[in-house]
Specification:
about 20% strand; 2 domains; Arc Repressor Mutant, subunit A; Rossmann fold; about 240 residues; five-stranded antiparallel beta sheet; 13 strands
Length: about 240
């Protein structure tokens, strides 16, 4: 995991130096930095990254603005790193494809813990070549390659949206509350993070449902939570 390639995007040199020092202390040695949106996009087009820190307030373009373009090039976890801590900002970040949202000032130990947790999940989802391929109606998910297809066409999912779909595929027809989903998929204790779960459910529905406003696969059980209901038959195949 410490061989992971990381990209830090922030126009504050002090933040870049601090994050680099923290991560190198934890034996992450492959770290690139960018101070502008254009530098970041150029790096993402030419290199593969395993995790990306993205500041919102960049001098040339807004981090919210470039996140979808970065997401087109990678399914790696993206962490927004910003002083903007309102619920609206967090919802905007998750909706645009981010996987975590860290507000300044931050606890360095917490940042490292989140990095390691996301990298473990992301690596686990792509490195199990002996796992079955999940096929539910027009949805296919291959854990070995980390690829998802909807109606036969490849679909790129942000890391945590992918993890959510993978969890549902492993547990069809089972009801989960928001707190259970948060703790099982995100791996953190639940502290009323309703927005995180709801935004990722909405993003997943937009990717796999014919009509996201009238979902057939991921259904809401009012007052209880969510359930993945296979359509058109379901199976796993080796």
């Amino acid at each position: 995991m410490q061989d992971a390639q990381l990209l830090l995007i922030d126009d504050e040199q002090a933040i870049l130096h601090m994050l680099t020092a923290i991560l190198r202390k934890e034996h992450f040695t492959s770290i690139d930095t960018a101070t502008t949106a254009e530098q970041a996009l150029a790096l993402c087009r030419t290199k593969r990254y395993d995790l990306i820190f993205l500041d919102v307030m960049l001098p040339d373009r807004n981090g919210f603005e470039i996140c979808p373009f970065i997401r087109e090039t990678t399914d790696a976890p993206i962490f927004f790193l910003t002083a903007r801590s309102s619920d609206l900002d967090k919802l905007s970040g998750f909706a645009l494809g981010a996987d975590d949202y860290i507000t300044k000032p931050f606890n360095p130990l917490e940042v490292v813990a989140r990095v390691k947790a996301h990298l473990r999940r992301h690596t686990a989802s792509t490195n199990h070549s002996n796992q079955a391929v999940y096929q539910f109606g027009h949805i296919q998910l291959d854990p070995a390659s980390g690829e998802v297809a909807v109606r036969g066409k490849p679909v790129v999912l942000p890391a945590m949206v992918y993890q959510l779909l993978l969890f549902f595929c492993k547990h069809p027809n089972q009801l989960f509350s928001k707190s259970q989903l948060y703790e099982k998929v995100w791996g953190d204790l639940y502290f009323g993070e309703d927005n995180t779960v709801m935004v990722h459910i909405r993003k997943l529905r937009e990717k796999i449902e014919e009509d996201p406003s009238n979902p057939q696969f991921i259904v809401t059980v009012r007052g209880l939570g969510y359930k993945f209901v296979p359509q058109g038959g379901s199976h796993e195949r080796a």
